[in-house]
Amino acid sequence: MITSEEIKRRLWDGANELRGSMDASRYKDYMLGLMFYKFLSDKTLEAFKVTSGLGQVTESELVEEYTKAKAEYGEQLDKMLQNVLGYYVSPEHLYQTWLKDINSGDFEVQKVTDSLNNFERTIAVSGDSDDFKGLFSSSALDLTDTALGSSLNDRSKNIKALILLFADLNMVALQKGDVLGDAYEYLIGQFAMESGKKAGEFYTPRQVSEVMAQIAVKTPDVKAIYDPTVGSGSLLLTVKKHLDADLQKNLSYYGQEKNTATYNLTRMNLLLHGVRPDKMTVRNGDTLSQDWPEDPARPNEGVQFDAVVMNPPYSAKNWNRANLKVSDPRFEVAGVLPPDSKGDFAFLLHGLFHLGPNGTMAIVLPHGVLFRGSSEGEIRERLLKKNYIDTIIGLPSNLFTNTSIPVVIIILKKNRAIGEPVLIIDASRNFIKVGKQNMLQEKDIAKIVDTYVERRQEKGYSHLATREEILANQYNMNIPRYIEALDEEIPHDVDAHLLGGIPQKNIDDLKILQSTVSDVLGQSLREIRAGYVELLKPVDEISVDILSDSRIIDKSNEIAGKAKSYIDKYWDILRNVNNDSNLTQLMEEMLVEIKMMLSEFKYIDAYDGYQIVAEIWKNALAHDTEIIASSDFYTAGRTREPNMVTKGTGEKKREEQDGWFGSIVPNDLLAQRLFSNELEEIESKNIRIQEIEAELQELVEAAKVEDSDEANALGEILNEAGEAFESKSIKVELKKAFKGTVEYNLLSKVERLFADKSALIKAVKDDEKALKEAVYERILILTDEEIDNLMYEKWFGSAVHAMVGLVELPLKNELRTLQMLNNRYADTLSAIDNESRDLESTFEALMSELVVR
Questions:
Q1: CA 9 to CA 15: how far, in whole Å?
Q2: Does residue 816 surpass a pLDDT of 90?
Q3: What pLDDT, in 10s, does the model give residues 544-603?
Q4: pLDDT band at 198, cuts 50/70/90?
Q5: Under the phi-then-psi rule, with left for phi > 0, alpha for psi from -120 to 50, and beta for the rest, what region is 300?
Q6: E strands in 231-370
Q7: Lower Cβ count inside 10 Å, N or C end of the chain?
Q8: Where is the N6 adenine-specific DNA methyltransferase N-terminal domain (predicted)?
Q9: Where are the domains of the chain?
Q10: Which residues are CB-neighbours of 563 under 8 A, at least 6 positions away?
């Protein structure tokens, strides 16, 4: 079975290979458009198969039956398919017909163009028709574009290669379980990263979408969601993902997008994720110039939504081309129009206008909206006075591909209690760097959402700003005015630098050590004068004493026991997942439970444990549970897949099988645990090869020493660079040497070392090949017990150790601080002065001994 991860990797690799020098933001329209057309063709064939009552048939047989039925029933068949799908793809225009033409050598680009153009005429005239119209407009999919190839022949070749990329994917089967939708969304994200600044118009980074969506779904009973700057639809789909299955079934999706190609992408993305056309209302238009959607029953009132999410263009210039007035119902609440040079608040006010009385809105904007003055300051003041701003979340810089500036997520509500403070979260320092981009980790997202839900305050991270504070700051909401960044730098102590010793106040600030093992720490210190201490032993020894203390051991054992129970509980659940299992929900349950479990322990960051489990899902469980769900645990454990590799270049480029790999059991782990003797034998031979290489290198170095026996005997067989022996010269020189001489013996030794090394290299190669073959065969006959042991180790082998490590982590951090303090004050100023005086005296003594002749 091909998994979603394998599909993603294969399609993205294919995209990179095929697009050549074409800009990624342009190529995405071709690739994703043709991928969607394959989906429409597959859906047409599936609908025909079901309605005609055909049993098990091959795809080619199905196409043949569909062609015959079309010839016999004509428009009657078309209408039947339209009633089921809202559209149909005629037999001559099927994706499968393109593939047939490619295989027979009859392929023409014009046939693809004709098929795409014809689709418009196959859409049923119904309420759903707008959802499919214009999907393949020539402005988005111009197959005559020279960027696809400078000549017709080149374009034909490149388009054929792109069509073949999806040839073996059954889009209908992949749509089940959202595998197809996930792959599509992944490709959109990858194209966004490659597109740089051009990506801003169609993509919100996943981690930002997650924060917004997880907050938006805290609104109870979400029935309709709206994104006024919908882009690719990723934000709407992320909101959907976090709603329970019952709410998802009846969820209505609304979105508006100005860019036509991106508007098409939105519709394709929603349809591929299984959103029914009757639940999807997407419009191609300018969000600000004219309000949409309007409620026909209530003029001048927009349709209200339970959740509004948006990532609009930042600081859009000349946004008011329609010459809107403050009397526009969207802007009346603000009492003033946003400046024409910056459209940030215009988008915010549009979204707020469409927010239901009990709904939640999340919008991401540049930091400037928090503090800029003039009309923006007036709008901000009005929103705060009306109590609409609920939460402000500061995010790190460089999260987006199209801008490096830091951004904020603003959460707005219309049903806040009078006097309720504004929650401010500063998450700008919580990220990791991945390539050129900064990224929030899963634990960072979880902490933001938990802080929002619990309305909790944490020094240096979150604060509840009262009306009095906001008024004192004149409605300036710049985050540093409310949250002061923690200064982790310890100030220098002048007395300690002059006289030595570590300030006792710095020792007292080691809060975790003081509260857990203060006696052990105290026994390692000695007061040298009032307020200053010195260490009685090195920090390394103190660390050993502390980490081996019974209280730390007991705490570690308690966490180990709970972690083991947690793993054992989910071990059984994970092995028994099936097609009815909600894997996303299972992952969230595991994450929430580990966080709750670790929260019981003082001085442990539960979010670090959350990240450990999140990484297990990312690295193994997401892939493996998908395979297990489609068969069963032990069948998957005994299944192997062909390992396909690309060989050759250019015209000779081809895919060949290079062995096998376990569907879920890793080959390397299987070899380590079940073929340890063979691995040890290979390792011993490799060690001997290294020893021989070291012996040869010693002889090379000796041969460079003039007049040495080695130089006389081996100098002639050194290569030109003098860095190694030339094996072909050894036999020549041996023939010249007399047996029994030093020269002959040294040459013979080198010859023997070369022969031994060559034999060992061949033996290692043969052993490795034999081991690989043995592993390939062993996969097929693994016992249930062996699969249990191997998979337990793969999933959870280091998990308990990692959880226990969370006990030591804060202690080690403070011990590093202790080491730093000891180093800082080790050399006093008086000691440095004495050393300087000693050096001066020595220098003067040397000078006095100098005699001028």
A1: 10
A2: yes
A3: 999 999 999 999 999 999 999 999 999 999 999 998 888 988 999 999 999 999 999 999
A4: very low
A5: left
A6: 252-257, 280-284, 305-310, 355-366
A7: C
A8: 7-164
A9: 1-201, 562-636+792-798, 674-781
A10: 597, 799, 800, 803, 804
